[in-house]
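Subject — a protein and its fold
Encoding — discrete vocabulary of local shapes:
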Amino acid sequence: MTKTSKLRKSRESLKDTFRVFWLLFPYGLLFSTFIAIPVAMSIGLSLTYFNVVQAPEFSGFRNYITMLTQDEVFFRHIIPNTVKYALLVGPGGYILSFLLAWVLSQIQKGPRTIFALALYAPSMAGGVFISVIWRTIFSGNQSGYINALLLRYDLIESPIQFLLEPAYLLNIMIFVALWSSMGIGFLAMLAGILNINEELYEAAYIDGIQNRFQEIIYITIPLLKPQMLFGAVMAIVGAFNNGMIGVALSGMNPTPQYSGQLIINHIEDYAFQRYEMGYAAALSVALLGIVWLFSKLAYSLFGERD
């Protein structure tokens, strides 16, 4: 190879590098601005005492030690509430999304579109529905639909404060969260099922598959792994970060007797009411770690293996 051809090849390689750089630059800029830099700042602030008024003071791992040894509310209420909520809403909403997506894929296009829109709508307007509809349904006076029915049939003597009683609030939160869990992951799984080649199912029945359950296990789920991975990650993130339901239903933060308090509410409480930004940042880093661990678990289940 001559010196001229080597120089030409080097220039072409440099041009390709610049093209790739400019293609990735917008993504890199957005990722850095909205994810990498905020995460780095949160980790940095978690190592400080910062009350918004004064400049941050470095305190090492004091916030993390406080979280593990001195924050009684965190272990007595926040962790149990978050675990119960995440385990029921995350896997529950995920399984429900898959089953409903599969059922809708079996009907014709017109009704399927209407039902898919009806199921997806609560995830877009969840805050409005919670503030208007669900607070009315579970209202603690005689105008609440549930209390009105119970009083009409003499099942109770006085209205129940569903949204203020610790025995009811978290369970209502889980019910409302499941009702509004048909989000973008549900649409991704529905689109994935609809794009599976019908000939594969026909071949599978010729090879010995005998019912719809085997069809789902051996054909649908293996071919749907990318969409199921995406849906799993979205379900995990939503389950751990969706703390506004309890506050919207009860109308207060902290929720009554911390009965509906999740880790995201605990972060908001310390950050925007107590102005202990350093400790709130430590809680957010802990939440990030939990979400990352569960996302890795989802990837190990549904990710592609070499």
